[in-house]
Amino acid sequence: MLPGKNPTAATLLAKPVKYIPAGNLAVLRRQARDCRACPLWRRATQTVFGAGPARAQIMLVGEQPGLQEDLQGVPFVGPAGQLLDRALQAAGLDRRALYLTNTVKHFKYAPRGKLRLHKRANAAEQEACRAWLAAEISRLQPRLLVALGAMAAQTVFGASFRLSAQRGRWHTLGEGTRACATWHPAAVLRAPGEQRAKLYGELVRDLTAVRRQ
Fold first, then answer.
1. 2 is a domain residue
2. pTM of the model
3. Which residues contact 169 (CB under 8 A, 6 or more apart)?
4. Per-residue pLDDT tens over the stretch 56-76
């Protein structure tokens, strides 16, 4: 990894990143394919790097890839991604204009028979991936950054951040980037009945506020 050229971008995350990979998004994506910074690469199908326009003004940061993302190599293409697509459409945002990525770039799972069940990345695994997220932020310099879910929110805002209490509040990161956090679409899917409708409505409202920004 090479020193990041943009010191402001290196400090946008809650814990400053001293060294970040250099290069444009295509170069970073190629470099990330060979990342061996943590053990997750051994069992994952492939690295799931971010996707979207290099000049996107809005960046959405999720938590980690799921099964379909692992198989296809693209973020937010599984059930949670489909719900996110509906929420983006309801909020008046065009996914094609956004840059979508995850805090962790490899699928972590627990095998159960023929199934591969999603398992949360631990602190060391999250730490190993922070350099890639910092590199994406450095390259894009987004005007707005949206953290989806608690893992992404704490990566951006710090371990003391509580999504249930601080969801939807705007913060300034470095120079020129504003950020907020909202529910991860997977959390909406896991919620029962009326609670699911409530969380989905809040997700749409938060994304609508992003469009208005």
1. no
2. 0.92
3. 180, 181
4. 999 999 999 999 999 999 999
